[in-house]
Amino acid sequence: MSTQLQRLNQVKADAILLHDKVKIDSALARLSEFLTQDYADKDPVFLVVMNGGFIFAGNLLPKLNFPLQIDYCHATRYRGDTQGSQLEWKVEPHTNLANRHVVIVDDILDEGHTLNAIIQDCIKRQAASVKTLVLVEKIHERKAVHNMKADYCELTTPDEYVFGYGMDYNHYWRNCEAIYILNQPC
Ligand SMILES: O=P(O)(O)OC[C@H]1O[C@H](OP(=O)(O)OP(=O)(O)O)[C@H](O)[C@@H]1O
Ligand code: HPA
User: Fold this and answer.
1) CA of 141 to the centre of ligand 1 (A)
2) Domain CATH for 46
3) Residue numbers of the domain that contains 20
4) Active-site residue numbers?
5) Contacts of 73 (CB under 8 A, 6+ apart)
6) Is 52 in the pocket of ligand 1 (CB under 6 A)?
7) Could you give the number of structural domains in the chain?
8) Cis bond leading into 65, ω under 30°?
9) Which ligand is closest to the CA of 162, given by its number?
10) ipTM of the complex
């Protein structure tokens, strides 16, 4: 096995389990109830933020039994690193969002710069409403907007780098079915 693969396996072996599959599944069940109450009659667009949002969206959206559209965008500011920098738009939404109820779906609200930029973009596109739906919120005082919170979120993480369930470590381990705290020097 290459040293790179050994290193990645070691990262997973050393990581600390934060939220297991059972906990994530029950968070998804609660979210699907809230979203059904709020959006069943609104013809919403769920705008999935690539890459991190796709596993969360792929597991949650099939639980919603009402008409909705799915689109995606790709904005990145970590680029496989454990610290964020300048936000780069890679793909903009394709759907005409004017007068639509938009729910932005992402894996994590960390400092919030990514979600904030996408919210502003949806407003610029004249969406009727814009809400945010994230799998986990990181608890710290460095938010892009003071006290920023997602509109829909059922899990939190302490101020540590986490991976799994869509979130990457150096572009790997998005495929974990649970969420782990990285337990290595960054
Ligand atoms: O709240 P913030 O501090 O802005 O960080 C959150 C964003 O960072 C990650 O994306 P990343 O930039 O790693 O891109 P990726 O999803 O393509 O890996 C994550 O998927 C969120 O979109
Ligand atoms: O803790 C994190 N893990 C993975 N991706 C991230 N993007 C922002 N914060 C994180």
Assistant:
1) 18
2) 3.40.50.2020
3) 3-181
4) 110
5) 47, 48, 49, 50, 89, 91, 92, 93, 118, 121
6) yes
7) 1
8) no
9) 2
10) 0.97
Pocket around ligand 2: residues whose beta carbon is below 6 Å from it?
78, 108, 110, 161-163, 167-168
pLDDT over threshold 80, residue 186: no
Residue 113, ligand 1, Cβ within 6 A? yes
**Structure-block tokens of residue 98:** 């004017």
Closest C-alpha residue for ligand 1 atom 13: 78
**Selection from 163, 75, 147, 67 nearest residue 111 by Cα:** 147
Looking at the domain assignment, is residue 110 inside a domain? Answer: yes
**Is 49 among the domain residues?**
yes
Asked if 168 and 137 count as a contact pair (C-beta separation under 8 A), the reply is no
At 35-83, the pLDDT tens digits run 999 999 999 999 999 999 999 999 999 999 999 999 999 988 888 888 8
Question: How many residues are listed for the chain in this entry?
Answer: 186
Counting ligands in written order, the one closest to the CA of 173 is 2
Tell me the CA–centroid distance for residue 52 and ligand 1, in Å: 7
pLDDT, mean of residues 152-180: 98
Whether 186 maps to a domain, the answer reads no
Q: What is the mean pLDDT of residues 8-15?
A: 97
Taking only the tens place, the pLDDT of each residue in 87-110 is 888 999 999 999 999 999 999 999
Residue 112 has pLDDT above 70, yes or no: yes
- Residue 78 in contact with ligand 1 by CB distance below 6 A: yes
